[in-house]
Amino acid sequence: MATSRTGTGKWKRVRAEAIKRARDNGLTRCPSCRTPLDYEWSKRPNSAEADHIIPHARGGTDTLDNVQVICRLCNQTKGAGKKRKRRAGKRVEPTTRVPW
User: Fold this and answer.
1) What is the pLDDT of residue 91?
2) Structural Rg of the chain based on CA atoms
3) Cβ(46)–Cβ(37) under 8 Å?
4) How far apart are CA 32 and CA 23, in angstroms?
5) What DSSP line would sit under the chain, residue for residue?
6) Are 14 and 63 in contact (CB under 8 A)?
7) Closest C-alpha among 43, 60, 42 to residue 51
8) Cα torsion angle, 54, 56, 60, 63, sign
9) What is the Cα–Cα distance from 34 to 13, expressed in whole angstroms?
């Protein structure tokens, strides 16, 4: 059974500590877009979220030195970097014709 990378106990502790430190240090605006951060509610576009500076897909770790707090919208937009381009599929022609 697969496990969630962001559901691990280690990540949850790092995430909570990063958000606590950001709030205690007076971070009130997203460093990326300058929108006011909401520390009270989650799942809102301006909710404070812990973000990997170097994504896991590129070798990043779940440590405080690799985490920044940004708004949810910027975090979701950032994702793991560049969006993947869809490759054009090869057109498949049937080998036999079926008369209708």
Assistant:
1) 66
2) 20
3) yes
4) 16
5) ----GGGSHHHHHHHHHHHHHHHHTT--B-TTT-PBPBSS-SSSTTBEEEEESS-GGGT--SSGGGEEEEEHHHHHHHTTSSPPPPPPPPP---SS----
6) yes
7) 60
8) positive
9) 26
Residues 8 and 2: their CA atoms lie apart, in Å, by: 12
**Polymer length in residues for the chain:** 100
Residue carrying the six token digits 């994504």: 55
pLDDT tens-digit profile, the chain (100 residues): 445 666 789 999 999 999 999 999 999 999 999 999 999 999 999 999 999 999 888 899 999 999 999 999 999 998 755 554 545 566 666 677 777 7
Do residues 10 and 51 touch, judged by C-beta distance below 8 A?
no
